[in-house]
Amino acid sequence: MPSLTNREPTTPAAPNDMTIAECYSRLENFLRQHSDIKQFKVEDDRHGMGMVSTLDPIYATNIRLSERTICNFMLNNGFQQDGDHILSRK
């Protein structure tokens, strides 16, 4: 359970503690760090936690956004849908 007081305020938040802005920032950073990778897989646990991974699951990040929200963000930022859970760069 998250603490009510954070002794180290610069410590990155855990995915379930993240604000929406932190979630989008984490997603943008993940996609930017892996700009050479063309395809990504988007999933969620149906409880508000989503995951974006490279198609060959070497790199991944968890985000407190649903699969649909993550897909919409990626579609609006230069990706196209190749399957139910697969998105690729245009």
Could you please describe the fold and organization of this structure?
The structure is a single chain. This protein is of the alpha+beta class and 90 residues long. The chain has one domain (15-89). Helices cover 26% and strands 24% of the residues. The chain has two helices and five strands, in the order αβββαββ. The chain has helices at 20-33, 67-75; strands at residues 39-44, 50-54, 60-63, 79-81, 86-89. It has a five-stranded antiparallel β-sheet, with helices on one face. A hairpin with a 4-residue loop joins β4 and β5. It starts with 19 loop residues before the first helix and ends with a strand. The relative contact order is 0.18.
Low-confidence stretches are none
The helical percent reads 25-40%
Estimate nothing, just give the exact number of structural domains.
1
Could you describe the largest sheet, including whether it forms a barrel?
A: 5 strands, antiparallel
Element order: H for helix, E for strand: HEEEHEE
Average pLDDT level: 86
The count of β-strands is 5
Shape: globular
Q: What is the helix tally? A: 2
Q: Output the structural class.
A: alpha+beta
